Each structure stands twice: as C-alpha cells, then as structure tokens.
Amino acid sequence: MNYNESHYEFLNSFSNIPEELVQELLNITEFKTIKEGTQLVKLGEVPSKVYMLVSGMLRCFLITESGKEFNKSFYLPISFAGPVAALIQKKPSLFVFEALSDCEVYEIDYYKLMALCNKNESLNMLYSKVLETVYMAYEKRLVELISLNATDRYLQLKKQVPGVDELIPQYHIASYLGITPVQLSRIRKKLE
C-alpha cells in the first residue's frame, strides 16, 4: 500500500518514527473509503480498530436509554478517532462513531498496533503522544462544557471547525453544544 507523504509528516509531528516502521504500520492498516452515515463503531460493539481520518468528517455520540443522541465530538482531517476506553478494556463501546460525510480513513488494528508498540520504542512514543493529544482535546471539551455558556461554546466550535454551519446539520451542532436546535437558532440570530 502506498501512503501519502503528508500523512507520514502528520505522524512525525507527534514523534519521529523511522520510515522503515511505516511499512510495519501499513501491514496492520487498511485504507478505506467510508460512505456518509456508516457507523465505524456501533453502540455495544467490542471494538478492535482505531482510525486516522484523512478526509471527510466523523462524529462520536452516545445514545441514552430513551434513544436521544448526544454528540461528544467531531473529527476533522487529519485526526485519530476510536473508542479508547473500550479498546483498552476490551469492553463494549459506549459511543458510536459515524461518518457525517463520505470519508477516507486508515483503519488500524489496535491490538496489532499495541504489539508493535511493545517491540518498538519509536512507535510506543508515537502512541503516547497521540494519546496525550486525545486526552488534551477531551479535557478542553470538558472545560468548555463546564465553564462556557451556549453562545461561547458555539463561538468556540466555529473557531475549531471553520464553516461548521455548512458542514454539520444544525441538530448535530445543537446536540454537541448541549442545547436544542431552537436555542441554537436563537443564538445564531443574536450573533448576526
């Protein structure tokens, strides 16, 4: 499999990995095109894959017992996505990962990746740096939910995802912000 040089540069932005390791990574990786609406990880599924998003947009959400969806996060290129806790604990995922648009991803076998990390310090460092980045994004999101009002959370999202209003349906944005679509509409009108 060929890989894109910019994807290699992206990986090296976390930690320098020797180019020969790239082939080992590619051996446990499958490049896939995913159609809009496809669930990469289903609710209750015990996952075994992690994803590097190359193009398109993903969302991560949870579903309450009453069937209501709450968006936890959106993923833009180039980023990593996957149910980390479920992978580490080998337990069913509490979250669903779904394509909001047609996407291209590298699908990586998590357990084979862990075996490679155990054998190779450079790869282990890359994994640690990626986990740190994921954790910092999660912590930032938590702080925003606790400390910002809905308008400020919306403005923050607009900074993080340029053109968010054209890319993501209003009801998904509202769910991510923890408000109703009607409230989001009012916020947009006030900001105009």
Automatic annotation (TrEMBL):
Gene3D superfamilies given in the database record: Jelly Rolls
Source domain of life: Bacteria
Keyword Kinase: yes
Ranges where the Cyclic nucleotide-binding domain occurs: 13-116
Presence of keyword Transferase: yes
InterPro entries per UniProt: cNMP-bd_dom, cNMP-bd_dom_sf, Env_Response_Regulators, RmlC-like_jellyroll
Keywords, alphabetical: Kinase, Transferase
Cleaved signal peptide residues: none
Cellular component GO terms held in the UniProt record: cytosol
A Pfam family annotated for this UniProt entry: cNMP_binding
GO molecular function: DNA-binding transcription factor activity; kinase activity
Name of this protein: cAMP-binding domain of CRP or a regulatory subunit of cAMP-dependent protein kinases
